[in-house]
Design goal:
The complex is a heterodimer of chains A (119) and B (805).
Chain A lengths: L2 E5 L3 H14 L2 E5 L2 H6 L8 E5 L7 H10 L6 E5 L6 H7 L4 E4 L4 H11 L3
Parallel strand pairs in A: 1-2, 1-3, 3-4, 4-5
Chain B lengths: L16 H17 L3 E5 L5 E4 L1 H7 L3 H4 L13 H14 L3 E8 L5 E12 L5 E10 L1 H23 L3 E5 L5 E4 L1 H7 L3 H4 L13 H14 L3 E8 L5 E11 L6 E8 L1 H22 L3 H15 L4 E7 L6 E5 L5 H7 L10 H8 L3 E3 L9 H9 L4 E8 L5 E9 L7 H41 L1 E6 L6 E3 L1 H7 L9 H7 L2 H17 L3 E8 L5 E14 L2 E11 L1 H55 L6 H31 L5 E3 L1 H18 L3 E5 L7 E3 L1 H18 L9 E8 L4 E7 L28 H11 L3 E6 L5 E8 L7
Parallel strand pairs in B: 22-24
Antiparallel strand pairs in B: 1-2, 1-5, 3-4, 4-5, 6-7, 6-10, 8-9, 9-10, 11-12, 11-15, 13-14, 14-15, 16-17, 16-20, 18-19, 19-20, 21-23, 24-25, 25-27, 26-27
Helix pairs in contact in B: 9-10, 9-14, 10-14, 18-19, 20-21, 21-22
Classes of the chains: A alpha/beta (119), B alpha+beta (805).
């Protein structure tokens, strides 16, 4: 079973994503900050990372860069609120699978995750 | 007794002794009956007869009076002289008469004429004295009276304050009085017997002769003014009254002279002064005016030569002003002399600020060159006085020179004073006029450079004056007399009503004018003007005129407009930015729960789908949907409270102050829109508690809203009237009334909704925010339609409202 890790400072988003992804059949771990994720043992087991762009402390793109620096090749699907559109091309160019703007559809999210996971 | 009767008297002659006795008795009776006092005396002087009258008068008996007894009746004071005289008659044997007082029986003395006539016999021997004593008391009294009167007249003649001369028919002097000798310099002796024409100046002789002839021939009084010469040749102006003395004797005449030299001098001076002052008033060149002044003084003061010098600008030296009668070399010497001690009289007068008298250059302490040049031209005396300005500065000096050593008389001192005074008027006036001319030139230049004209306007007469620059600004030919009609013709049609209202109100209330308006010039161009004028009053309640400035602010306006556009662009950019940021922030806040709802909804659907729905998970997901929904609601509520809480600061306020502050800051903006704003404030309103900035914002919004509402109005005055007062209950009421497009009845309430707007620009937030501010303060904001055009927006704020959130 693939492990999907969710990093978002918003509890509502974390819980709703966990509910959705578990209903689809993924194993889900959630983190309220990038730092928590980096410190967790999930770092090495995660198959796909759902990452919020705007967070207190280390932001989503910062975590992406940190993972790249550690040569930790986890596929990342960014989720972002309205207004952060300028981030999208940058994170995509740095290897993100997709960058979804909230509120996004279920298909868009699942498609992105499926793209990220190795077949 | 025949010896008693004079033979030569022609009386009847006695024929015999009986006859003689009878005759004697008859004579005796006759003698006793005549009213005169009659007596006879023996050759040795002893009285041998006194008639009855004599005895009755004196109260003596014949026995008492006979011999020397009569002497008792003579006034003792007169007796010695009478007896002396009687003895001289007795000695000479000649008839004679004398006067003495005779005492009447009642003791009263009366004057009598004592007359004695001797009688001689045929041999020539004196045989008898016949005498008569005649009462001359009345004549004597009349004589004494006449003598007294004559003495009085003589005294009057002598003491008369005018020169009086009595002339005979040949106009030779009979008599002169003291004043005559003083006035003309002749002694009594020199004058008497002299032809009066010797006193007459040659050129006056003909007229004089005619006057005298007229007086003597017509017997009429003749008056004239003429010139006479004193013995020393000095000419005197006199007024003369010639009056004939009409008596039975040869014709004589009195001539009275009054010395009117001083009066004539004063008249001449006055005429000269008048001419000078006219020259000054007409602005004749100073040089010319001062020359005339010198001539006037020279004419007035015989033998004087005048000069006027100026103090130069740094006050160090004297500069030659005018000295028309001084020799050129002397004038050259005067020019540029230092104002220092031990200098000439003029420099000294300027230095000391007082009159300096040089009696004689030969003996006075003056510089050697001065003395030499003065000597060369025969100038001996010099009197110089300083010429002061009104503020006490020495402007220059005046001087009088004479060719003989002398000091001024009192009258000449007065001339110097007058000379200084007139010179000071001339110099100061000219300097003041020059300064005025210069300052007018500066002003005109300043007006030209600053594009500012000046004007005056008398509301009572409608008279208007313009400066050159004002003519230029209005593009009117300077030969045209400006009128209010002309001004109105030039004013932009859209501003005429506004202009008119401003002008009428100011003239009615006597308040200062300050507003801006536009001109529409004949070539179709527009000029922006700023008008500022202040009322001038004679008395507090008497408005005389407005004096003000009109500034051409077209260029400034253009620059201001450009700046305003730039500012507006900037504001737009800034607003867009702010809105963008706010939108992003709001979007983020709302999107989070929205995203949650969508995701949970999807999750829920998934848990419920399939053959064995996981109701527990579905319920959990649905519960999260509810929670996220609530959360979105919370976000909105937070946003609202964020807006409401921003920077609120409550204080005690006078709503009139708030209105006034806003009117003050918006006046320019409002005027730019061609709108007039005025306030009708009710004083002594209770204070309110509120946020000053928010209340200002509220009033500002209403004013700007009113300006907007009138932007399309062309056919009537654009006016905002802001009134304050008490509302119903414990409220303070503010009403903002405009003359704009008014309210659409259907939209009356909608206008307060957010994002409702009838305008092409703006977001329609103004009135919504305004209402929210009013309500936030516990008050209300609403709008009503006016009776006439436009609408009125009203808001209330509770007095000292502490209950507001």
């Amino acid at each position: 079973m693939s492990l999907i890790s969710v990093v978002d400072d918003d509890q509502s988003i974390r819980e709703s994503l966990r509910g959705l992804l578990e209903s689809v059949g993924f194993a889900v771990e959630t983190f309220s900050s990038a730092r928590d994720f980096l410190d967790s043992e999930c770092l090495t087991r995660t198959d796909c990372l759902i990452l919020d762009v705007r967070m207190p402390g280390m932001r989503g793109p910062d975590l992406q860069r940190e993972l790249a620096r550690r040569e930790c090749d986890i596929p990342i699907v960014f989720i972002t609120a309205h207004g952060d559109e300028e981030v999208r091309p940058r994170v995509l160019s740095e290897g993100a699978v997709d960058c979804l703007v909230k509120p996004f559809t279920e298909e868009a999210l699942l498609t992105a995750i499926r793209t990220a996971l190795p077949t | 007794m025949s010896d008693l009767i004079p033979s030569s008297t022609g009386y009847a002659v006695a024929k015999d002794a009986a006859d003689v006795a009878t005759l004697h008795d008859q004579y005796r009776l006759a003698i006793d009956t005549i009213p005169g006092l009659v007596w006879t005396a023996l050759p040795d002087g002893r009285i041998d007869f006194l008639n009855q009258r004599w005895l009755e008068y004196t109260g003596l008996t014949l026995g008492e009076a006979i011999g020397c007894g009569w002497e008792a009746a003579v006034c003792p004071a007169d007796l010695p002289a009478l007896l002396d005289y009687w003895r001289s008659l007795l000695a000479s044997g000649r008839p004679g008469e004398t006067e003495a007082r005779l005492r009447r029986h009642d003791g009263v003395n009366r004057w009598f004429l004592f007359r004695g006539v001797p009688q001689f016999d045929d041999k020539g021997d004196l045989v008898k004295w016949y005498g008569q004593t005649v009462d001359i008391e009345d004549r004597k009294r009349a004589e004494e009276e006449l003598k007294k009167q004559t003495a009085h007249l003589d005294e009057l003649f002598e003491l008369a304050p005018h020169a009086v001369v009595l002339v005979d028919a040949t106009v030779s002097v009979i008599r002169v009085n003291k004043e005559f000798t003083r006035m003309f310099g002749y002694t009594q002796e020199e004058a008497v017997g002299r032809p009066l024409l010797d006193l007459v100046a040659p050129e006056e002789r003909l007229a004089e002769y005619r006057n005298n002839a007229k007086m003597l021939s017509s017997g009429q009084k003749v008056e004239s003014e003429t010139i006479r010469r004193r013995k020393d040749g000095v000419r005197l102006a006199v007024s003369m009254t010639a009056s004939p003395v009409l008596t039975a004797g040869p014709i004589e005449g009195y001539i009275i002279y009054r010395d009117i030299t001083e009066r004539k001098r004063a008249e001449a001076l006055l005429a000269g002064e008048k001419r000078l002052l006219e020259m000054i008033a007409k602005g004749e060149p100073l040089q010319r005016t001062l020359e005339v002044l010198c001539r006037l003084v020279e004419q007035d003061s015989d033998g004087s030569i005048c000069s006027i010098l100026f103090v130069d600008e740094d006050g160090k030296r004297l500069r030659l002003g005018v000295a028309p009668s001084l020799p050129a070399s002397y004038r050259r010497m005067l020019d540029g002399r230092p104002i220092a001690p031990d200098e000439g009289p003029c420099a000294m007068a300027a230095l000391r600020g007082e009159t300096v008298i040089i009696e004689d250059f030969r003996t006075a302490a003056v510089p050697e060159d001065y003395r030499a040049v003065a000597a060369a031209h025969g100038l001996r005396a010099c009197w110089s006085g300083p010429v002061f300005s009104l503020d006490g500065k020495v402007l220059g000096t005046v001087a009088l020179y004479y060719r003989a050593p002398r000091t001024p008389t009192q009258q000449e001192s007065n001339v110097i004073e007058q000379f200084r005074h007139l010179a000071s008027i001339a110099i100061e006036r000219t300097q003041a006029e020059n300064a005025l001319r210069r300052s007018q030139a500066y002003l005109a230049e300043a007006q030209r450079l600053s594009l500012t004209g000046s004007f005056s306007w008398r509301p009572a007469t409608g008279a208007i004056t313009w400066s050159e620059e004002t003519y230029r600004i209005f593009e009117v030919d300077p030969s045209v007399t400006p009128t209010m009609e002309l001004v109105r013709e030039r004013i932009h049609p859209a501003d005429v009503a506004f202009f008119q209202e401003n002008v009428e109100r100011s003239s009615r209330e006597g308040q200062a004018l300050a507003f801006e308006h536009r001109l529409l010039l004949p070539d179709g161009s527009i000029r922006h003007l700023q008008i500022v004028a202040h009322p001038w009053r004679n008395q507090p309640d008497e408005l005389v005129e407005f004096v003000g400035a009109v500034m051409d602010i077209t260029e400034r306006k253009r620059a201001q407009d450009a700046l305003d556009r730039l500012r507006s662009d900037l504001a737009h950019v800034s607003r867009v930015n702010t809105l963008g940021q706010m939108a992003a922030s709001i979007a983020h806040e709302i999107n989070q729960p929205l995203a949650g709802i969508v995701i949970n909804g999807n999750a829920s659907l998934r848990w419920l789908a399939g053959e064995s729905p996981n109701l527990h998970e579905a319920r959990e997901a649905t519960r999260r949907i509810v929670r996220d929904g609530q959360r979105a609601g919370d976000v909105i509520a937070r946003l609202r409270s964020l807006f409401q809480r921003s920077g609120s600061l409550k204080e005690r306020l006078d709503i009139n102050d708030v209105v006034q502050e806003v009117v003050a800051i918006t006046r320019g903006e409002v005027q730019k829109a061609g709108v007039m704003i005025r306030t009708q404030r009710q004083d002594d309103l209770p204070s309110v508690t509120g946020d000053r900035v928010q209340l200002q914002q509220l009033v500002l919004n209403l004013i700007m809203n009113a300006v907007e509402a009138m932007s399309g109005v062309q056919d009537r005055l654009r006016e905002i009237v802001i009134s304050t007062g008490l509302g119903e209950g414990d409220e303070v009421l503010v009403a903002v009334r405009d003359s704009g497009i008014g309210l659409d009845p259907e939209a009356k309430e909608k206008i307060f909704d957010a994002f409702y707007t009838s305008k092409s620009v703006g977001m329609g937030m103004g009135l919504a925010i305004s209402r929210s501010i009013a309500e936030h303060h516990g008050g209300r904001l609403w709008a009503i339609s006016n009776d006439g055009p436009g609408a009125t927006f009203l808001f209330t704020i509770p007095r000292n409202s502490d209950s507001a959130p």
